[in-house]
Design brief:
By secondary structure, the chain is an alpha/beta fold. The chain has helices spanning 3-13, 30-38, 49-58, 76-79, 92-104, 128-136, 138-141, 161-181, 201-206, 216-219; strands spanning 20-24, 43-46, 64-67, 85-89, 109-116, 146-154, 188-194, 211-214. An 8-stranded parallel β-sheet has the order 7-6-5-4-3-2-1-8. Strand 2 (43-46), helix 3 (49-58) and strand 3 (64-67) form a beta-alpha-beta unit. The two termini are 24 Å apart. Bound molecules: pyridoxal-5'-phosphate. Pyridoxal-5'-phosphate binds next to strand 8 and helix 10. Pyridoxal-5'-phosphate (PLP) binds at residues 24, 26, 47, 68-69, 154, 197-199, 213-217.
Amino acid sequence: MTAVGENLNRVKSSIPSSVTLVAVSKLKGPELIMQAYEAGQRHYGENYVQELTTKYSQLPKDICWHFIGHLQSNKVKYIAPFVHLIHGIDSFKLLTEVNKQAQKHNRIIHCLLQVYIAREETKFGLDFNEVETLLSSPGFAALHNVKVTGLMGMATNTADIESVKEEFKSLAAFAKHLQSTRPPSANFSLQHLSMGMSGDYREAIACGSNMIRIGSSIFGERN
Ligand SMILES: *Cc1c(COP(=O)(O)O)cnc(C)c1O
């Protein structure tokens, strides 16, 4: 067993089987990804479009590629043919572009709305009101080639674990609120709550996350 395989198994044994583990492979080479692949891992997360398309062409086709970075509208077309889940939808304009590109490939692309829960100013995302507005808009109902299947959030990067938990709890409560007030439709069904990274995934799961994005605990620190 390789070091990556051992790290992967260590993370997997610390989470319930109901939680989807997305191995964040950004800035890590195909050899390391293959080590995790040989150990059974199929879901990978990438942040950069060019890097993702290169890896997609090089690596096994049964990998489910998650795009977890900040996605620019003009780059959606490169990942639309194959992306499994886009975590970072932070505007109606971006969702519309994903819909347009998905239509070209005769696909329905699953997306998570990125919700802003951190105290930092640099984090992207929608606030709760903006999510409600987007989901209520007639324009959203007309998007037939995307499906919003959940929410994604990133907590403040801080050692103050109590405030991290408060942020996770606020997003979990908001997801519950949406589920109870908005019936599922053709393009809306909340199943995934993507929160938690290497430093905070245990807290995230305790607060209701069912999808975690783990990079450095599997592949080692990035340069
Ligand atoms: C890089 C990244 C991760 C993984 O972070 P680690 O701390 O290495 O686990 C998770 N989510 C997003 C959005 C990222 O950009």
